Amino acid sequence: MKRISCSFLFILFGCFGHVWAQTAPLSFRAAVGVATYFGDLTEKPKLFNQSSPSFSLGLNYDITEQIKGRLDFSLMKLKSDDRFNTRQDFVNRNLNFTTSLWDLQLGVEYEFLNMTSNDYIFTPYLGIGLGILHYNPWTYDRTGVKRYLREFGTEGQGLPSYPERKVYSKFAMSLPINFGIKVAIKENVRFFLEINLRNTFTDYLDDVGNAYPDRDIILNEANDPTTTIGLTYRGDEVSTQPYPGVKIQRGGYTKDFYYTTSIGFIFNLNNLEIGGGGNGGSKRTGKVGSRSSRLKNPGRVF
């Protein structure tokens, strides 16, 4: 399914760029990198902490010479495990999760140096947008069976005794903020290095966001009480501590966020004329200044 989705998106982006490149200033972008989670199962944010690969495809639209519209689709995996923490209370909690995640972002970015005017071969940039993401955290239980945590209501979600604890959605909104640097390699090709922060509006990327539910309530009301208790509290796997009291926080200290650190290429389509010429092929209609001209004729930064 993932391969089919990636192929469909690649074809979609390609067709969109092919059609609109004739009249609109578009660029196609592709990137690879690593994704890192920060939330209730980590002590503090680190640049690379239990990171996993990430991939993205997207389009840029030139609103002005230095302001770009942006559409991105990304695939990645997020994970974290208490046993890699140093705080003893985190280690004793002994929770972990993994989730495959995709997100779709729409935003704008500002290039601080005007590369279009042929004055510069590089520019730092900053962007902001709005996104939607899909996730579904899972773990392996004590017998090695893969369990999707949302289905078990590990914090009492869906139980009659906890009507205020609703089952969380697999979808959430995010506020992405990205910054990086772009470097011109050829007339229509740019290399970029970017960090993209996603501030989410959910606390359940990791399935952890509230106090421990009452053990007796789980035993009486859960569909699979033994498995649910085993996923809710795993401290007894590494210590002799009993099931925590109901007023003890399992998590919920802050909203979860994640970020990607990636490198990629941007292919400018606005200097191509599709279908031009006698042979029905494509030809270049624009010209980008040489590196020397960009360096010798500094333009305005803002």
- Give me the strand/helix succession: HEEEHEEEEEEHHEEEH
- State mean pLDDT (0 to 100 scale): 85
What is the CATH level 1 assignment of the largest domain?
Mainly Beta
As laid out across the biggest beta sheet, the strand order is 1-2-3-4-5-8-9-10
**Taking Cα atoms only, what radius of gyration do you get, to the nearest Å?**
24 Å
Number of strands: 12
Number of helices: 5
Give the biggest beta sheet.
8 strands, antiparallel, barrel
Cα shape: elongated
Structural class: alpha+beta
Binned, the helix content reads 10-25%
Please outline what is shown here.
With 302 residues, the chain is of the alpha+beta class. It has helices at residues 2-20, 88-93, 215-221, 225-232, 291-296, and strands spanning 26-38, 52-62, 67-81, 96-111, 122-134, 138-140, 146-148, 171-186, 189-200, 257-268, 272-273, 283-284.
Mind explaining what this structure looks like?
This protein has 302 residues and is of the alpha+beta class. It folds into 2 domains: 2-134 and 170-201 and 252-296, Porin, CATH 2.40.160; 136-165 and 211-248, no CATH class. The chain is 15% helix and 39% strand. It contains 5 helices and 12 strands. It has helices at 2-20, 88-93, 215-221, 225-232, 291-296, and strands at residues 26-38, 52-62, 67-81, 96-111, 122-134, 138-140, 146-148, 171-186, 189-200, 257-268, 272-273, 283-284. Strands 1-2-3-4-5-8-9-10 form an 8-stranded antiparallel barrel. It has a two-stranded antiparallel ribbon with strand order 6-7. It has a two-stranded antiparallel sheet with strand order 11-12. The model is unreliable at 8-23 and 273-302 (pLDDT under 50).
